[in-house]
Specification:
473 residues; FAD/NAD(P)-binding domain; Enolase-like, domain 1; binds nicotinamide-adenine-dinucleotide
Amino acid sequence: MAKEYDLVVLGGGTGGYVAAIRASQLGMQVAVVEKGELGGTCLHRGCIPSKALLRSAEVYSQTLHAEEFGVETSNTSLNFTKVQDRKQAIVNTLHQGVQGLMKKGNIDVFKGFGRILGPSIFSPMPGTISIEYENGDENTMIVPKNVLIATGSRPKSLPGLDFDGSLVMSSDDALQMDRLPESIVIVGGGVIGIEWASMLADFGVKVTVLEYLNQILPTEDEAIAKEAERLLKRKGIQFVKGAKVLADSLSKDTGVTIEADINGKKETFQADRMLVSVGREANTGNIGLENTEIDFHNGYIQTNDFFQTKESHIYAIGDVIGGMQLAHVASHEGITAVEHMAEQNPLPINYRNIPSCVYSNPEIASIGYTEREAIDGGFEVETGKFPFKAIGKALVYGESDGFVKIISDKNTNDILGIHMIGPHVTDMISEAALAKVLDATPWEIAQTIHPHPTLSEIMGEAAMAVENKQIHG
Ligand code: NAD
């Protein structure tokens, strides 16, 4: 007889496993079906391993410049095998942690490929899950009351630039490199492209970024993207914007050569390797969606505000529904979906209140509207901008590039957006997120006493700058 569950989660990534934990807290009998490893993209092929490599790159680059701090070093060298080992050790530790959490929540984990079946002998509704195993063991059937699809996404390639794992790499491939190339061409100057460009440049690799649009990091505020480009150029990164990559021209031997059309002029780029980072596509293939009434748009599953698909007992969250493809978004969507199943009346997610971060060196973080979006949205805006070079702690750190910019509504004083570039801003953006959730105004941020000397003082100064009342600038 097929085992019954209150909830079966397809995909044990950050969205899926967090949802499973919340469901177990709410008293549900839960199973997670995962074909790979618990923790998914974020833990094994994304956030965690890439940030571990970025941290090694930062330490290496800081050590090379240690003399500025009066620390004299000699013969600084990089052992990339140890860099990779450290990364893997961090991933392994966190992976064990997630496995422990599943046990603690009494959550059954099936290591296999889950497919949604149509109405069957087990259930008159679509949703019975058939689990297939790589080793050919007989399929397991499980019957859920609710299903949560959290199957995530994978790197998208460009026609003609198929990933081969070594010369033309996805970000998954790049994480597995056993040695650093001398040079790399990165196609796509979005979040992944810029994090890799920054990391590899800090490791001493010659980096060229080919970006299709006329702005790198196109979703960031224009002032932030400009500053990022200026600061990253100082590391020696070459940015080519408005670059239409001509995939037909790709040739591979010991390295790669590719042409791009830049404003009507052809240019040739040569490097040891190529990374293609032009977005991600949803993992919706083969999971049995054809056995359901679930709607799609541009390859993404459509849901309502509580993540119910057209089949009201089948929910979907995370990268598979598109939107902001971020781990913290997926996990909050997962919690909301599960609380909705359990009739807990969760609040719908306000996507304007979600912080996003780029872990380049310097870091970038933002929340809410960019200035352009706010103006296009019909707001009359006021802005306050304050530089890190006037913040004592930033000078102490030796990292005084960048600024914080606050955009507010001139008529209501509401904060519309906060944008940061500089040291540790991916941690500092949480104050901005709290301010947004509490509907604070710049005045309230300015009233919040920031300890001295800290980097966080920049928030108070930028808030005061909205009314031109900043103290140190
Ligand atoms: P992205 O959408 O952030 O950026 C893709 C970039 O490629 C864009 O700048 C786009 O203009 C450019 N592009 C598209 N087609 C091109 C072409 N033919 N030639 C040159 N450039 C082209 O996608 P990504 O960087 O691949 O990241 C994928 C997803 O993963 C994003 O949603 C991102 O937010 C998420 N992610 C987040 C983090 C983080 O939070 N720090 C880190 C990595 C990835």
